[in-house]
Amino acid sequence: MYTKSTKTVLITGCSAGGIGDALAQAFHRHGHRVFATARNEAKMDHLKELGIVTVQLDVTDPTSLKKTVESVDAATEGKLDILVNNAGIIYSMPLLDSDVEETRKLFEVNVFAALNTVKVFCPLLISAKGSIINISSVAERVPVPYLGIYCMSKAALSMMSDTLRIELAPFDVTVINVVTGSVVSRGYDNQSLKLLPTGSYYSTAKGKIEAVMNDPLPQQQRASTEKFAESVVSNALKKNPTTRYWRGGGATMVWAVTTFLWYGIWGLFVSGIYGLNDVKRAWRTRAS
């Protein structure tokens, strides 16, 4: 039974097994009214069984967004307490080998759709003096080889969060940017096997690089999705939440390195792990 203290929450990207799924369940456990969304509503059947409202939503489709806003508006009497921009995709490829259309597609989902979602729900958020939670990544702060396009999109999302925080302050809307470390999710499930194109400058380390492109971090180094979600939700429900919130595997380490150490040390650290030292040696041998 919902009470006056019950908050209404809409979350994008709630397919089973992902961060959005875990966030929806965490908000639901705290007694709040959750609207879980995804492109394929069937992937949220388990949430529906828990009593969570599921809504089919393609965040890149203005018509789908408008329909969802109208539905939530009618169901909540014009108020939305929390909007969580979680929907996102990943694209693995060295920048020199990246495909322009794939890049546009990623930015359409990770950046433009997030902004459009904020814009269409803003009247409801302002009415509720609500909160926006953008699920960003440590990739906004560190250059990860072969994930450059993704890093660029998360940097854009982070700046969007910081700017919105200032611009929406007059309306008492809070903006939280969650700087997410490694978390168990299905972010790579929708990505087809990525292979270096013929003639790539990185072909001399093809095996190592392709392995990293398709499985960037061992599973055991990833934080629990459930614990991550619980932490994010607990912070969001505070009277004065932390607005730049670092959580997930390796997040604290990345924060410390990028805050206190020489920034260029990151390149030295990752070059060996990501096969770039192998490329360097092969290139120098070829050039000599």
From TrEMBL:
Spans through the membrane: 253-276
Q: What keywords were assigned to this record?
A: Membrane, NADP, Oxidoreductase, Transmembrane, Transmembrane helix
The cross-references to CDD domains, in alphabetical order and at most eight, read: 17beta-HSD-like_SDR_c (cd05374)
Q: Which GO biological process entries does UniProt record here?
A: phosphatidic acid biosynthetic process; triglyceride catabolic process
Q: Which GO terms describe its cellular component?
A: endoplasmic reticulum; lipid droplet
- At the top level, the lineage of the source is Eukaryota
Q: Which residues form a coiled coil?
A: none
Q: Looking at the keywords, is rRNA-binding present?
A: no
Q: What is this protein called?
A: Uncharacterized protein
Q: Which organism is it from?
A: Coleophoma cylindrospora
